[in-house]
Amino acid sequence: MSVRVDINGLNKSFESVEALKNINLEISPNELFGFIGPDGAGKTTLFRLITSLLLPNSGTIYVDDLNCEIDFKKVRNITGYMPGRFSLYYDLTVEENLDFYASIFKTSLKENYHLIKDIYEQIEPFKKRKAGALSGGMKQKLALSCALIHKPKLLILDEPTTGVDAVSRREFWELLKKMQKTGITILVSTPYMDEASLCDRVTLMQKGEVLAVDKPENIVNDYHGDLWQVSSNNMNKLVTDMTGLDKQIKQVFRFGETVHCTTKGIEKSMVTEIIELGLKKSDHDNIRIDRAQPQIEDCFLSLMVDNN
To answer: What torsion, rounded to 10 degrees, do the Cα atoms 6, 87, 202, 38 define?
Structure first.
């Protein structure tokens, strides 16, 4: 059975640095909830507070009716945690790492093999290999197996797809979707904006603050303003030359093979005239300007500017 997570008025500081500022979140049972934001947003600090590896300056965290600060032992017994950095024992084999973590929770690999079967089958041929000799994707699957071996009700994954290839990233999210169907609440953080769409709901975080909480599609639909994608024969200079081009061109940033910019309430003909006139003065040719559909990254950058 999955659990809910309630976070109320949470604050955490490290000396003069405010890592988290008045965080309030309600996460439903069996939800796949994403924490999206760049390094330094506060995602790891929040996860360490939920798992009682850190204590807050103020505020509370409840997992169902368990207070994470007071009932930390009970919370840890029902929580699987996969930290951002691979933290298993490099000099133990795959099998030995799993046996060790299972023994901590008074269970065994044999007893709970069915819980990790879909994941462990992919690394079982290498069960005698030392963990330090595994590839990034295989380390990831071993760490996830160890986090699941005691049948947790809450699974916390801190940037699990960072540093692995695109195929491993896709496979990992497919595994998360399968695990969610078994009745488990999953909290996952990522700096990759494109992974937001794979979550039921997300919170966008920046500098310890929550910018938005909603379903990914709702965040995109709430985007305010008009978004344009621009390209030219000199992409390396395009962001620099468009920044400050005109007061009606609000945000300018690189987005894949084009540059995105925003305006509010002006027609395409006017946008085209402003941009083309300005860029031609900076020796740009083959200028192309089209409307763009907002993505979660556009929404994040817009919210970040509004928040500042």
So the answer is: 120
pLDDT, one tens digit per residue, over 129-180 is 999 999 888 898 899 999 999 999 999 999 998 877 787 788 888 888 988 9
Positive or negative: CA dihedral 22, 85, 34, 183: negative
Query: Taking the alpha carbons of 12, 18, 22, 26 in that order, is the dihedral positive or negative?
Result: negative
Residue 139 sits at φ, ψ, to 5 deg, of -60, -40
Question: What does the alpha-carbon distance between residue 175 and residue 149 come to, in Å, rounded to a whole number?
Answer: 15
Planar angle of CA 79, 103, 141, nearest 5 degrees? 60
How many Å apart are CA 124 and CA 130, to the nearest integer?
Answer: 12
User: Could you tell me the domains of the chain?
Assistant: 5-220 (3.40.50.300), 223-307 (3.30.70.920)
> Each residue of 94-141: pLDDT tens digit?
999 999 999 999 999 888 888 888 889 989 999 999 999 998 888 988
